[in-house]
Specification:
heterodimer; A: 286 residues; mainly alpha; 13 helices; 2 strands; B: alpha/beta; D-Maltodextrin-Binding Protein, domain 2; three-stranded parallel beta sheet; 14 helices; globular
Chain lengths: 286, 359
């Protein structure tokens, strides 16, 4: 039984969260939903309809851009996992004491400056007259400037760099909780490095891998700066498209519809990913 | 991890502090100005505050964001805004975000009469005037004459000689500029949707054809300046001030008025619909149009103003650069943007998207 006093306490404790959710998330989304269902028929004239959503499916350009964004985000997530796992393993299992803290801090340091500054940093490194190109020319590896900026590879580098921390932190947390004696037992029973990794370490780290992957995927999909600044002439990104609908086209109705499609389709991809890996959200988050 | 907890705590505390500080109300009269970089330099703001006791809060933006910001609030949040004059009447017709100007509160004698009249005519909707002119300038070509001597018009950017060494924006001025250099007249087609679509279709084909020549579509002023300064790009479509700034560092690079005509814009003053300090706004307009103050703004922004007698006070080096880029016939050839009719952006948007997506 919940007494009236506990009930009041519950309400008071919940109110900041509820206030936050309704005023900053639910109400704006309802407004967006309303805007996305208005079709513009003339100056200051609107009609109710699903036309803005239909545009997405009938115009291949938008559909292709979304597919490209999703595909590149999945690839970026995979690369981040591939690079982040050994780092997390080293920090959680091999490094000890102050070294552990120092390494962890090193992962964190780049995030003390803004994303814009980090992206400009990459532009300085990768551009035709940039640091890497100049170094290669100086060392005689190449004899003319090479352009490494303005292509999909540059976007990938930027995305992986931007989201590395969000993969490494959950991985460290789960790997930290793996008892070393389990690994020792694996060796005692005749396992080798590969089979122990496959049968003991990775199964234990799955929740961390899934959490990290979801966060990195969502961050990449919703990233705006990196693809715009590092990408080339043909580098369309779905968030960039939403921005241009809202700001340069004055077409809020279309932009809002795209926003909802992004929300729906990305949730669908995450759900499929969870199904595919046999995980549930409850298990991963709990 | 206790470290993570600590860091998140620090972040939270600093975020809350920042929020609390930003929410502190200001007691003195305040003018909230929505403008472009360089149009409200610190020395001008300080002088204004000293003379009138009004604080000025400057927010930097661009045409599209200004309109989007005002549209989001129904014309609130700012007391004075500075969109280009061609974006005033259309935005007002569509979103009702401005209020008419009381011209009796503006000292017309400080303005160059022809410019004031032109802006008044262009920003008139249903008999009400919504804008007065402030800063004007052009977009055209910035060319490194030592490396790309024969780039004279927008269309020359597509010359395969300069493959991978040219840049322009993927925005509406590019569409307009290319249309003119292809011998079309987009402004004449403004009022006729079918004719405008036809013009845009030809421009689209040209831009897709030209895409392999472009190094990148630039998006920020600093980006294109860096590309030109480093020599990675030898010719670009950009604003006149960018060219003159680069000219100060490298005499080979300067702004060139294209053969088909530079595109002229005038940034205006408008009053947002829910502005709360109209008197302060009129005071600011009359203040910055004084020739000596206008000259201070020209020194900062690099562009000339509609203030009568201010160009005489401008820096000699800037005047020399202006005259080198604009011989008298090039000034006569400037294509001034007429008001953009509501809805044109949709046609242009489709073209820009398709060019962006083309392989």
């Amino acid at each position: 039984m919940i007494g009236p006093r506990t009930k009041l306490g519950l309400i008071l404790l919940m109110s900041p969260l509820l206030l936050w959710l309704t005023t900053l998330i639910i109400i704006p989304h309802l407004d967006m939903l309303y805007v996305s269902l208005r079709e513009k028929v003339g100056v200051r004239l609107y009609e109710f309809g699903f036309g803005n959503y239909m545009t997405f499916f009938t115009e291949p350009l938008y559909w292709n851009t979304f597919a490209r964004t999703a595909y590149m985000s999945i690839f970026a997530t995979f690369l981040t996992l591939l690079i982040g796992f050994p780092i997390a393993y080293y920090i959680a299992k091999i490094a000890k004491g102050r070294m552990k803290m120092a390494l962890f801090l090193l992962c964190l340091v780049p995030f003390w400056v803004s994303e814009l500054v980090r992206t400009f940093g990459w532009m300085i490194l990768l551009r035709e007259t940039g640091v890497i190109s100049s170094f290669l020319q100086w060392s005689g590896v190449v004899n003319q400037p090479i352009e490494m900026l303005y292509n999909d590879g540059a976007i990938m580098v930027g995305l992986v760099y931007t989201s590395m921390l969000f993969m490494v932190v959950p991985l460290i947390t789960t790997l930290d909780s793996l008892d070393d004696s389990l690994i020792e037992a694996g060796y005692d029973l005749g396992g080798n490095g590969f089979s122990i990794m496959k049968n003991i370490v990775i199964p234990h780290a799955i929740p961390g891998i899934v959490t990290g992957s979801i966060v990195v995927f969502m961050l990449s999909l919703g990233n705006y700066l990196t693809p715009i600044l590092l990408g080339g002439k043909s580098s369309l990104w779905f968030t960039g498209m939403i921005y241009s609908q809202f700001i340069t086209r004055f077409n809020w109705e279309q932009g809002a519809a795209f926003g909802f499609l992004l929300l729906g389709l990305s949730s669908l991809i995450v759900w499929l990913g969870l199904k595919f890996s046999g995980q549930t959200l409850a298990k991963t988050m709990g | 991890m206790s470290l993570i907890n600590k860091i998140s705590k620090i972040t939270l505390v600093s975020a809350v502090t920042a929020f609390a500080l930003s929410a502190t109300p200001t007691l003195a009269e305040t003018l909230r100005l929505l403008t472009w970089g360089g149009y409200a330099p610190e020395n001008v703001v300080a002088k204004f505050t000293a003379e009138t006791g009004i604080d000025v809060e400057v927010t930097l933006s661009n045409n599209e964001e200004m309109i989007a910001k005002l549209r989001a609030t129904g014309g609130g949040g700012f007391d004075l805004a500075q969109p280009s004059q061609d974006r005033v009447a259309g935005a007002q017709a569509e979103y009702d975000i401005y209020k008419p100007m009381d011209l009796s509160k503006i000292d017309a004698s400080q303005f160059i009469t022809s410019m004031l009249d032109a802006t008044k005519a262009q920003t008139t909707l249903n008999g009400e005037v919504y804008g007065v002119p402030h800063v004007w300038g052009t977009s055209g070509l910035i060319v490194d004459s030592s490396k790309a001597p024969d780039v004279k018009d927008y269309i020359d950017l597509c010359d395969t000689k300069y493959e991978g060494k040219v840049s322009y924006r993927l925005k509406r001025p590019t569409l307009i500029g290319f249309a003119f250099s292809m011998g079309l007249d987009p402004f004449a087609a403004y009022s006729d949707t079918a004719a405008y679509e036809d013009v845009m279709k030809q421009v689209e084909a040209k831009l897709i054809d030209c895409k392999s020549n472009v190094k990148t579509y630039w998006s920020g002023g600093d980006e294109i300046m860096n590309l030109l300064r480093s020599g990675e790009v030898v010719a670009a479509m950009a604003w006149d001030t960018g060219g003159w700034k680069l000219n100060a560092d490298n005499p080979n690079i300067s702004f060139v008025a294209p053969k088909s005509g530079a595109l002229g814009w005038i940034d205006a003053f408008v009053l947002p619909k829910k502005g709360k300090a109209d008197d302060a706004a009129y005071k600011w307009i009359n203040f910055v149009m004084q020739p000596d103050v206008a000259a201070m703004i020209t020194a900062q922004a690099g562009n000339f103003t509609a203030s009568l007698g201010a160009d005489a006070m401008a820096d000699d080096a800037l005047k020399a650069r202006f005259q080198a880029s604009f011989p008298p016939e090039a000034i006569d050839n400037i294509k001034w943007y007429p008001p953009v009719p509501a809805g044109l952006e949709t046609i242009e948007g489709g073209v820009l998207d398709r060019v962006n997506a083309a392989k």
